[in-house]
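Appendix B: complex inputs.
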Amino acid sequence: MNASRAARGGDNRDRLLRAAVRAFAERGFHGTTTRDIAAAAGLSPAGVYVHHRSKEELLYQISHSGHERTLAMVRDAVARADTPVDQLRGVVGDFARHHAEENTSARVVNYELAALSPEHVAEIRELRREISNELRELVERGVADGSFDCPRPRIAATAVLSLGVDIARWYREDGDLSPDDLAAAYVDIALRVVGAR
Amino acid sequence: MNASRAARGGDNRDRLLRAAVRAFAERGFHGTTTRDIAAAAGLSPAGVYVHHRSKEELLYQISHSGHERTLAMVRDAVARADTPVDQLRGVVGDFARHHAEENTSARVVNYELAALSPEHVAEIRELRREISNELRELVERGVADGSFDCPRPRIAATAVLSLGVDIARWYREDGDLSPDDLAAAYVDIALRVVGAR
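Resulting structure:
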């Protein structure tokens, strides 16, 4: 395949993934046909199968790359700071901003897991476990060094992640909270949840 | 209609609503047909239309009664207690327990709003506004009388509701947290979010 044909293939793949995100967010995985996605991407139904074996494969690509990016974002934020307080600030700020800015794809990533094949869902659950572990270990480090004071670190970590994920459900771009404003408020709330001193 | 025929009609209506909740939770509104729901309820497709004009009407019934019950639950919890701290304990405890115990129907009630007709969605949004207002006013009362200390009461109220709603996404009956255990932990977390003294 020559370079321009390879580039066109990459463009089509990106267009398909974006069209699939919009369709799944609007009508759910089971309410979307491969034909809908192809039409929204300006391709023939056969054009979908050049890049993806099935509709489930498209959802898996979206879900897998979404979770990998989130895990990398959380690990970067932890690596950027030296203390549990500053690490929590970074993680919660980035996580909240992401779920506000990318709320459409975040809804697909978080609310359509049950539509994945058992093998794919197991793989995604492993990535989710790694994200949860980062948060839990961060809260536990803060409790251990006396920066945080909370009776149930695991539930506190769950609550902090849950607050961030649920932004994708309720956040609206046309509301009066910018992603940065929301991120700052949620950093303050997360520090309260873990009892930062 | 004689009494036993009326009772049978009520039974069928309840069976249909329960079957619709399960189907919508499993495959989403757009991925579910009226035929699926009828089959799950042990009725003919025509039997659905005796009670509901359309699939959308079924979703509306589920959503409307779910939101009305939640609003009544929140108002009851506020009325039961005298101080903002005790009111918040009651509201958050009941809200969290409900979203754990009834997580399947809570997912349908909270994640399928976009599938409602414009008139129905407006009606449901009004009920949601009333639920949000109860929480916001409760936090504001606590700030006003000095029981709570938080810089942004409206965002704190949003976060407390959001924590409760998102339980329906992640809670599993076979996990190691009972609804009562989760409710108690979330009461503690909500008191932290509002800065209860």
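Chain B touches chain A at residues 26-32, 110-111, 114, 151-152, 155-156, 158-159, 162-163, 165-167, 169-170, 177, 182, 185-186, 188-189, 192-193, 195 (CB under 8 Å).
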